[in-house]
Design a protein that fits this description.
Keywords: Iron, Iron-sulfur, Metal-binding, S-adenosyl-L-methionine
Largest sheet: 8 strands, mixed
GO molecular function, one term: cobalamin binding
Number of strands: 18
Strand order of the largest sheet: 2-1-3-4-5-6-7-18
Organism: Nonomuraea terrae
Number of domains: 3
Radius of gyration: 22 Å
CATH architecture of the largest domain: 3-Layer(aba) Sandwich
Cofactor: [4Fe-4S] cluster
Number of helices: 15
CATH superfamily of the largest domain: Cobalamin-binding domain
Pfam family, one: Radical_SAM
Bound molecules: iron/sulfur cluster
CATH topology of the largest domain: Rossmann fold
Mean pLDDT: 95
Length: about 425
């Protein structure tokens, strides 16, 4: 251990797509009082410049990305490494790195962050300051001499109040982490656990005060399922939801606005009841709700583990419209085992919901790492289905990036084949 702590510079490859997660990590460093220099690189060149410019003893470079971006980010890492002469310790975190640490290490990163990053980043920067072995840091995958990803002990899944969503920055407030549902296409339960962890109302209010103190007036939330706030189980606890919304309103100035159940979050269809809608109408500023339907086929919904069939979807759209919300309804086409008949049922339901006043947000199934369907074959989406989605989009009834996602799906399937599940996994004792 050095007599004096080594100076550590944290350089972030700062991308819009991942700012929320990065802000949480930086907030964890600030909250834990960990000394560090911080530099944000918004391009590869700027990131390399920061790596070269710092006079710190150690340079830790943070990367985070979703699975569809993994290939592009690996190319960028190579460019940054070349531009900065190989200086810096590069770590990739987030859901892709958690699911595919071996691939991340093979792609050139020095470390992969596994799981929730707050306690890992705090321990990692401290270990660099004290020149301690990185095997003492929880939640890492490190290459051994054979190139195999060795895992350190798991990072803890702490109560959400342990760290703020942001500190000295802004963004949506994360009110719930983890998800008790088991949708087989979704990375959330794998990454954050199968139980809800809710931020306390007091902590949410403190976040709102911080935003208001910096002159901001709009509040948004991150949660897997908005109306589950405060509830441990499948049924909403509307008393807790009202306590949250009323508390937030009290912290806001009169012209302040609360957005709940809309971007970047959504609601489950069976939670959309007249009582819930009346409650939201009293507090929220959003005129739309994002509702997850995913399929018009009860058979596909059952196979995907959604925990509901199509009937609450129709009810949710009708009830939301009756209460003055425009529903944006998520659909996924090409889920494993989906037949042409199932797709026809989805198109029929999408058309019916559009008639009721909904907009359809269309997605193509992607076999995402870490999910139960990582290795599943996407169902074929014939031209006729694509054309029908285009027709809905041209009428203004649908939107989404389903064509791009189909390309991502093909690339993810290639990665899954190259890295068979649970291959070459070892654990350190560190
Ligand atoms: S899709 Fe939504 S409800 Fe389903 S597991 Fe993911 S976060 Fe939970």
């Amino acid at each position: 251990m050095p007599d004096v702590a080594l100076a550590v510079c944290v350089v972030v490859r700062y991308r819009k797509a991942v700012t929320y997660g990065v802000h949480a990590l930086l907030a964890a460093l600030d909250t834990a009082g960990v000394e560090h220099e911080l530099r944000l690189g918004t391009t590869a060149e700027e990131t390399a410049d920061h790596i070269l410019a710092t006079g710190a003893d150690r340079v830790l470079v943070l990367w985070s990305f979703y699975s569809p971006d993994a290939e592009a980010m690996a190319a960028e890492l190579a460019a940054v490494s070349e531009l900065s002469g190989g200086r810096g310790l590069h770590i990739a975190g987030g859901v892709h790195a958690t699911a595919e640490p071996q691939q991340v290490l093979d792609s050139g990163w020095d470390l992969a962050g596994i799981g929730e990053g707050e306690s890992t980043i705090v321990s990692l920067v401290r270990a660099l300051q004290q020149d301690e072995p990185l095997t003492t840091v929880p939640g890492l995958a490190i290459k051994d001499a054979d190139g195999v990803a060795l895992r350190t002990r798991p990072a803890p899944q702490l109560p959400l109040d342990a760290f703020p969503s942001f500190a000295g920055r802004s963004g949506p407030i994360e009110i719930t982490r983890g998800c008790r549902y088991t949708c087989r296409f979704c990375q959330t339960p794998f990454m954050f656990g199968g139980q809800f962890r809710h931020r306390s109302v007091a902590s949410v209010r403190a976040h709102v005060r911080e935003l208001v103190g910096r002159g901001l007036r709009d509040v948004r939330f991150i949660t897997p399922t908005s109306l589950s706030y405060g509830s441990p189980g499948p049924d909403p606890d509307l008393g807790k939801v009202e306590e949250l919304l009323a508390g937030v309103k009290e912290e806001l100035p009169p012209h302040g606005r609360v957005f709940f159940g809309s971007f970047p979050s959504e609601v489950r269809p069976e939670h959309v009841t007249p009582e819930a809608m009346r409650l939201l109408k009293r507090y929220v500023a959003n005129d739309n709700l994002i509702i997850g339907a995913q399929s018009g086929s009860d058979r596909v919904l059952a196979a995907s583990g959604r925990g509901h069939d199509t009937s609450p979807v129709r009810d949710a759209v009708r009830i939301a419209v009756e209460h003055g919300f425009r529903p944006n309804v998520d659909f996924i086409f090409g889920m494993p085992g989906e037949s042409q008949d199932d797709q026809a049922q989805s198109l029929q339901l999408a058309g019916d919901l559009a008639e009721l006043g909904a907009r359809i947000h269309t997605h193509t199934f992607m076999p995402l790492p870490g999910t139960p369907w990582r290795d599943a074959e996407p169902a074929f989406i014939p031209l006729a289905t694509m054309s029908e989605l285009d027709r809905l989009a041209q009428r203004g009834d649908a939107y989404g990036h389903w064509r791009k996602q189909a390309e991502h799906a093909a690339r993810l399937a290639e990665t899954a084949k190259a890295y068979p599940r649970r291959a070459r996994r070892r654990r350190t004792t560190g």
